[in-house]
UniProtKB/TrEMBL annotation:
<dbReference type="InterPro" id="IPR010693">
    <property type="entry name" value="Divergent_4Fe-4S_mono-cluster"/>
</dbReference>
<dbReference type="GO" id="GO:0005737">
    <property type="term" value="C:cytoplasm"/>
</dbReference>
<dbReference type="Pfam" id="PF06902">
    <property type="entry name" value="Fer4_19"/>
</dbReference>
<feature type="domain" description="Iron-binding zinc finger CDGSH type">
    <location>
        <begin position="102"/>
        <end position="139"/>
    </location>
</feature>
<feature type="domain" description="Iron-binding zinc finger CDGSH type">
    <location>
        <begin position="178"/>
        <end position="214"/>
    </location>
</feature>
<protein>
    <recommendedName>
        <fullName>Iron-binding zinc finger CDGSH type domain-containing protein</fullName>
    </recommendedName>
</protein>
<dbReference type="GO" id="GO:0046872">
    <property type="term" value="F:metal ion binding"/>
</dbReference>
<keyword id="KW-0479">Metal-binding</keyword>
<dbReference type="InterPro" id="IPR042216">
    <property type="entry name" value="MitoNEET_CISD"/>
</dbReference>
<keyword id="KW-0001">2Fe-2S</keyword>
<dbReference type="GO" id="GO:0051537">
    <property type="term" value="F:2 iron, 2 sulfur cluster binding"/>
</dbReference>
<keyword id="KW-0411">Iron-sulfur</keyword>
<keyword id="KW-0408">Iron</keyword>
<dbReference type="Pfam" id="PF09360">
    <property type="entry name" value="zf-CDGSH"/>
</dbReference>
<dbReference type="InterPro" id="IPR052950">
    <property type="entry name" value="CISD"/>
</dbReference>
<dbReference type="InterPro" id="IPR018967">
    <property type="entry name" value="FeS-contain_CDGSH-typ"/>
</dbReference>
Length: 216
């Protein structure tokens, strides 16, 4: 078995890549209807089993960026019309949009559109989620109280700065969704907690300094 983090499944019209460093096994691919992903089959992903359009649609369901595609006619995955951050119930921050993740390796193409970022403070793969929130029994329902200053426009680049031993600083047009799915906060600048200790989640309140949070 290959020890490389990325496995490429080649098709005639489109290739699919799976990055083990980002996958937290949510099952959006495996539960999708059709023959693109079939557990126990070798290989488990077969891009030629469905249409190019279906490959794109199913791969774009992956919320962590672990799955990405390379369309051989040169069509890249489009940036969503809006940048969004879902504060998952007892889980990570799911970002979608035109993302610029500071420090993300060049060989992680999926995180330019979709990524799951740790907010429990326990991930061993920071800033990415690795499901450690389950192990440490992180509890936060994803409620968002603030409405934010609002937005005058949508979309565009969203820069995500990973502050050493501190929060995630987001710059760009952004809508934050509560764990219930409710669009809650809108604005162009915010700092989100990633130590797991803020009393004002999902926003940073400086608790990382009191906690002595280490991001490495």
């Amino acid at each position: 078995m290959s020890t490389e983090p990325i496995t490429v499944f080649e098709g005639r019209e489109i290739d699919v890549s799976w990055d083990s460093r980002l996958c937290i096994h949510l099952g959006e691919c495996g539960k999708a209807e059709g023959e693109l992903f079939v557990a126990g089959r070798e290989p488990w992903c077969q891009p030629d089993a469905v249409s190019r359009a279906e490959v794109r649609e199913v791969v774009e369901r992956c919320p962590t960026g672990a799955l990405s595609y390379r369309d051989k006619i040169g069509t890249p995955e489009p940036a969503p019309a809006e940048n969004r951050c879902l504060v998952a119930n007892n889980g990570p921050l799911y970002l979608t949009g035109d993302l610029e993740i500071e420090g993300a390796p060049e060989d992680m193409p999926g995180v330019r559109r979709r990524v799951a970022l740790c907010r429990c403070g326990a991930s061993k793969n920071k800033p990415f989620c690795d499901n450690s929130h389950v192990e440490v029994r992180f509890e936060d329902g994803g409620a968002v109280g603030s409405r934010g200053p609002g937005l005058s426009e949508r979309g565009g680049p969203l820069r995500v700065r990973v502050m050493p031993n501190g929060p995630l600083k987001l710059e760009g047009n952004l809508t934050i969704l509560a764990g219930s799915g409710r669009p809650a906060w809108e604005g162009t600048q915010t700092a989100l907690c990633r130590c797991g200790a803020s009393k004002n989640t999902p926003f940073c309140d400086g608790s990382h300094r009191t906690l002595g949070f280490k991001s490495d």
